[in-house]
Specification:
Layout (H helix, E strand, L loop, with lengths): L2 E6 L4 E6 L1 H22 L10 H5 L5 H36 L11 H15 L7 H21 L7 H25 L2 H11 L8 H28 L3 H6 L4 H23 L5 H12 L4 H25 L8 H21 L5
Antiparallel strand pairs: 1-2
């Protein structure tokens, strides 16, 4: 398959990607649209597909407008933003560590962010909700730094060791979170426990705006990390030969990955395995460079979380299962298969 290249401004800005990339992007966009329309129609209040254009333009029954714009639309938008942030976070972690098993929920990042947010809810409930992303980022960074330090070995990098250390640290942090939920004031603990389920069912336009702002702030940094990640694909030694300051590059990429995961966790709680599944799905759709891979991962994450939320609220209606539970049911078997495959060719 040949590559396709375009350039702008006299060659100062150029894009090069495999010809299969636009088709993969189009397929994922169509999948997002299909899941979105289904999400807007599904529920106890019936909406017809031919009513959607009028309702989107603000015309129609007042109750239908309220259901669409105040309940279902922000829920779908939040699911897409959370899924995109978690997926790109996973793709960045996998690229920086050269580890296809890396995922914010598996290597302690989501657990560190969750512990920080639960601490705010249980111990300092009067703190502004705007403090959650900051606390989640701090908790995620601390967890990521601890895992990097503990997994560093004398024989260099080891992907499986990184994963196993991350799982152990995540378990310890989760134990601390459980202690807060067990011994905290019952009302505060109940609120934190509902958030811990990982769901977007209470999403409103406020959190959607915060997520959109966070994603927009991360976009320039995402453009910057494309080149370092491209060099890191060849390994640390070759990247050093290319003139890349590997230590600083990895620190920047991992920090950005932690920030994106923290923003998503602060808004919707921990939703596991999205950062693992979406990049793997993007990689299997088509051959792509780092930039295209990040775009495909973001779209795949939006599809996964929005579909998980749709399935969770319709499979046993009126009972609603959180998206985090659905993603775990799907993600655990795939993770086991991947780690077994990895173990056959790696040594601890």
């Amino acid at each position: 398959m040949t590559d396709f290249a375009v350039s702008y401004f006299g060659g100062r800005v150029s894009l090069r990607f495999a010809k299969g990339v636009p088709f993969a992007i189009a397929a994922l966009v169509i999948a997002v649209i299909v899941v979105g329309i289904t999400s807007l129609l599904a529920g106890s209040y019936d909406l017809a597909v031919w009513d959607i254009p009028a309702l989107l333009s603000g015309q129609g029954d007042k109750t239908a407008l309220t259901v669409l714009w105040d309940l279902r639309m922000p829920r779908f938008v939040a699911a897409c933003l959370v899924g995109g942030l978690l997926a790109v976070s996973g793709a960045l972690l996998q690229g920086a560590t050269r580890n296809p098993l890396a995922d914010p929920s598996l290597v302690g990042v989501s657990q560190g962010a969750s512990f920080a947010v639960v601490s705010l809810i249980v111990l300092w409930p009067n703190v502004s909700i705007w403090a959650r992303p900051i606390a989640a980022f701090a908790g995620g960074v601390c967890a990521a730094m601890l895992i990097q330090w503990l997994s560093a070995g004398k024989r260099g990098e080891n992907s499986l060791r990184f994963i196993l250390v991350g799982i152990g640290v995540a378990a310890i942090i989760s134990a601390g979170t459980s202690a807060l939920l067990t011994y905290g004031q019952i009302n505060r603990a109940s609120s934190a426990l509902g958030w811990m389920a990982g769901s977007v069912h209470t999403a409103s336009w406020g959190p959607c705006a915060v997520l959109a702002i966070c994603a927009a702030l991360c976009l320039p940094a995402l453009i910057w990390v494309v080149r370092p990640l491209t060099a890191l694909r060849f390994g640390s030694e070759l990247a050093i030969g290319f003139g890349l300051p590997v230590g600083r590059a990895k620190f920047g990429v991992i920090t950005l990955a932690v920030a994106m995961a923290a923003f998503a966790v602060a808004a919707a709680g921990p939703i596991g395995f999205v950062g693992l599944l979406a990049p793997q799905m993007a990689q299997r759709l088509t051959r792509a460079g780092v930039g295209a891979h990040l775009i495909l991962s973001a779209l795949g994450g939006a599809v996964l979380v929005s579909a998980a939320d749709l399935l969770g609220r319709t499979i046993a209606a009126p009972i609603q299962f959180p998206a985090g539970l659905v993603s775990a049911v799907v993600g655990v078997p795939i993770f086991v298969l991947l780690i077994l495959k990895r173990a056959n060719s790696s040594q601890l």
